[in-house]
Amino acid sequence: MADGTAALLLGKRRNDRTSATGPGRRAAGTGPLAVVAAVFTVAQLLLVRPVLGLGWDEVVYVSQVTSHHPAAFFSAPRSRGVSLLVAPVASWSSSTVLLRCYLAVLSGLALYVALRAWRGLFPTRILVTGGAFFASLWITLFYGPQAMPNYWVAIGALVTVGCFLRRSENPTARAALWGVAGGAALMAVMRPTDAVWVSVPLVVLALARRHGRLLLVLAGGLAAGAADWVVEAHTAHGGLGQRLAEASRIQGGLGWQIAVDDQLRSLGGRALCRPCTGSMPHPVIMLWWFALPLLALLALHVAVRAGRVTRTLLPLACATTAALPYLFMIGYAAPRFLQPSYALLAFPVAAALWHLARRPGGGWRPVLAPLVALCVAGHLAVQLTVLVYTADRNIDSRRDWTRAAGELHRLGVRPPCLITGHQAIPVGYYTGCSSGATSGNNANTTVATILRTADRVPVATLVAPGGAPPPYARSWPEHRVGELRVRVAPPPGERAGG
């Protein structure tokens, strides 16, 4: 009788454990993550707004797959991942609003998948807080609906590192292997060099712990994602070494160059800080940036005491290696460059915030908890303020390109046509023309080719304010288009007679 009672009690306990980790518990754990992703999606559509026109880099990526515009010059550092990402919409529609909505929804779904990759590694409250921290940065909100690679490298990094940890702790987790491969491939297809920097600590850990299968899967994912870039290096750039050298030249020459101050200047809403001159933004805007390393150290201290060092140290290490080239190896800055680092820092930072706000045994700390809440609210207010300012400014500047295109059409520069000179790539896209340059990072033609083209189709050269027209266009009639001076090639007969 006693044995039967004991068996019943044991069976009840097993059922309780099963129900605690069963479908209901899993659904409860994923629900808050889905809410974070949904709010992130809606915030993009409300705050960045789908009417935001395509930026310079977006023009390059989107023009590779659209049938409505000639393809812009594709320089050595770029990868085809973004073009593949936007192809389902851009290949048949020229609607920027539709493209923005598509990318906002896709980025929200991707964030949800990335957060799920970390379930079981940190409590749900930390995943929600970390996801909300990353998603509420003005940089993340601004670039989520844009055709740019850095957000997607960040998502790939989160998936790769999370699944790597899951597999290293549980050798039977086969799905985690697919996550490692998929995340690594996503990083590499977007920015192969960034993928390598993120993966360095993973390779070191795999070698140290003799995780041979994990190492092979990681290498396979990176190779699959970078394959197109490597093949293109040999078919269009004279080899992999030549492409890397050309990419370094375009980026100003990779080497020891401190760009920390440049990154700080860009925090105020500058999409590209090159050259990075001018004053620093208000100290309030930069406070969160200085708080990150302090919170990361606190998170590591807490992890050591809790006996879960690897789960915190590995994302911190990957965040550090991802940031190194953009802080110490290039001479300019863009805030989006550090998105993978911000994503990987999110969960350790969230763990540190929860440690400050709650006692280890439970209950809120009476002084620190309100202070943490106040700091988080202030941080969110600053991020949203910078976001609105940045979005408004970029909407206005891209409308200038639309107006310039209308003026060029009025001057007779209509497709098929060619635009050269200052801002030729974005203005050419908005006008529906090809773009060309004879020098600089986007050089893709010659003077002789431009003149031959002018014999067949309209050609215009854009001159920056205070600049001088190129020699081949000095005799062409000049017109004012906003702040730009435009030299339009006259018909062949008139040029010959002049």
UniProtKB/TrEMBL annotation:
Keywords: Membrane, Transmembrane, Transmembrane helix. The chain crosses the membrane at residues 27-47, 97-115, 122-143, 149-165, 214-231, 285-304, 313-334, 368-389. It comes from the Bacteria. This is Integral membrane protein. It comes from Streptomyces sp. SID14436.
